[in-house]
């Protein structure tokens, strides 16, 4: 696994910054003409409507995925036309981010995430591009974590699969581009086993940066609806080890592993999450991840025809306006999408295999999935 790939799989970052405020107010009506003299104005003036907060964020700049990385550029390095991936397709194709796709995460932060694939599934020859505004903190973390000492764009290729990477900070924006299985010949190998980017790839990367440099003043950051509740930033607020043990019907208290979140910008994934793992093996029972103020994203995913089919789930304790849906993926994992107080919280329980050994759950997957979901709902209500 490359250094860059290791970073890309890191799951936890800081709570998302907010994106674009789309609002407007109606102009005052023009009074009809009258032949009679004007009378003095009496009474209170007509109040002006207060702009309503946008229910969902949008990028804080006007450039689109195709503007930044057009098909002509992709064909130069991949040798063929590739198909744009929607959030649901990218979600199902990327195991580590199955429920909360990068498109949704970037939009929450005012940015843009794009994906393309030669076969339309997210496998094989692919390309991805992610842009975050207010990128200074992300770039600072990147440099410190990887020991990168300059502010020039960082690009390289990996020889094992012909994948080329760009990470850069330009015009106040943090950007990452990945090209998988390029068809152009890679550059010379260095002492770390990495290869220099060939001229064609460098040219494509430079074009992306030039287009980003053309962006002017960013639009204001999005403000979530006023009734959005604060989401926890620690897994102990959503589930305790004792609750997980009881729900799973196992003898040993499981571990709740993974960063809680709250540490600023530790990756390009501004979500929170943790695994429920076996006490005596590396096997995982479930994963819980959440996107602050992400209820809009869950609703978009639910409406997508290419997403995993989900049906309403009856979970005790849901507040008015909260929702719960459940579905099963192709591997037999159960995925529960909760929207609690405007936040998207996803519970994924894994199909039990022989790897669990003596710590295999003694309760059916369906039952402990429901129990864990109910525990999360109850704990969220207490915490919020």
Oligomer: single chain
User: Approximately how much helix is present in the residues?
Assistant: 10-25%
End-to-end Cα distance: 40 Å
Structural class: alpha+beta
Radius of gyration: 24 Å
Strand percentage lies at 15-25%
Number of helices: 10
Write the layout of secondary structure elements.
Blueprint: H1 3-9, H2 65-68, H3 71-78, E1 83-84, H4 87-93, H5 102-108, E2 112-117, E3 126-132, H6 136-146, E4 154-158, E5 163-170, E6 173-180, E7 194-195, H7 199-213, H8 241-248, E8 255-257, E9 272-277, E10 284-291, H9 295-303, E11 311-312, E12 323-328, E13 334-340, E14 343-349, H10 365-383
Antiparallel strand pairs: 1-2, 2-3, 3-6, 4-5, 4-7, 5-6, 8-9, 9-10, 10-14, 11-12, 12-13, 13-14
Explained architecture:
The protein folds into two domains: 56-213, no CATH class; 235-383, Protein Transport Mog1p, Chain A, CATH 3.40.1000. It has helices spanning 3-9, 65-68, 71-78, 87-93, 102-108, 136-146, 199-213, 241-248, 295-303, 365-383; strands spanning 83-84, 112-117, 126-132, 154-158, 163-170, 173-180, 194-195, 255-257, 272-277, 284-291, 311-312, 323-328, 334-340, 343-349. Helix 8 (241-248) runs antiparallel to helix 10 (365-383). The relative contact order is 0.15. Strand 4 and strand 5 form a beta hairpin. With 384 residues, the chain is an alpha+beta fold. The strands form two sheets. A seven-stranded antiparallel beta sheet has the order 1-2-3-6-5-4-7, with helices on both faces. Strands 8-9-10-14-13-12-11 form a seven-stranded antiparallel beta sheet.
């Amino acid at each position: 696994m490359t250094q860059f790939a290791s970073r890309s799989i890191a799951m936890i970052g800081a709570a998302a910054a907010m994106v674009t405020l789309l609002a407007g107010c109606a102009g005052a009506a023009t009074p009809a003409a009258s032949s009679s003299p004007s009378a003095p104005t009496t009474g209170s003036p007509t109040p002006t409507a207060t702009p309503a907060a946008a229910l969902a964020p949008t990028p804080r700049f006007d450039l689109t995925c195709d503007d930044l990385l057009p098909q002509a550029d992709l064909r130069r390095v991949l040798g063929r036309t590739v198909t744009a991936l929607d959030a649901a397709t990218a979600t199902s194709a990327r195991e580590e981010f199955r429920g909360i796709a990068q498109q949704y995460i970037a939009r929450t932060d005012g940015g843009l995430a794009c994906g393309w694939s030669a076969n339309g599934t997210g496998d094989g020859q692919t390309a991805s591009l992610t842009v975050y505004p207010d990128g200074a903190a992300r770039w600072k973390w990147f440099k410190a974590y990887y020991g990168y000492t300059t502010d020039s764009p960082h690009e390289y290729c990996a020889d094992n699969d012909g994948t080329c990477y760009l990470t850069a900070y330009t015009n106040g924006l943090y950007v990452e581009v990945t090209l998988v299985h390029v068809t152009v010949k890679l550059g010379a190998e260095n002492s770390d086993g990495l290869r220099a980017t060939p001229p064609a790839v460098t040219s494509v990367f430079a074009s992306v940066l030039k287009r980003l440099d053309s962006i002017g003043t960013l639009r204001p950051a999005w403000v979530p609806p006023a009734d959005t509740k604060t989401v926890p930033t620690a897994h102990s607020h959503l589930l305790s080890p004792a609750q997980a043990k009881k729900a799973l019907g196992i003898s040993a208290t499981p571990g709740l592993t993974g960063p809680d979140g709250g540490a600023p910008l530790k990756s390009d994934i501004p979500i929170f999450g943790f695994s429920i793992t076996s006490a005596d093996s590396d096997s995982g029972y479930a994963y819980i991840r959440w996107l602050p103020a992400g209820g809009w994203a869950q609703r978009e995913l639910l409406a997508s025809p290419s997403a995993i089919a989900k049906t309403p789930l009856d979970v005790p304790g849901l507040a008015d306006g909260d929702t719960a849906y459940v579905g099963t993926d192709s591997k037999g994992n159960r995925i529960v999408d909760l929207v609690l107080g405007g936040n998207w919280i996803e519970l994924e329980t894994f199909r039990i295999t022989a790897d669990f050994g003596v710590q295999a759950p003694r309760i059916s997957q369906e039952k402990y999935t429901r129990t864990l979901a109910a525990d999360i709902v109850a704990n969220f209500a207490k915490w919020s």
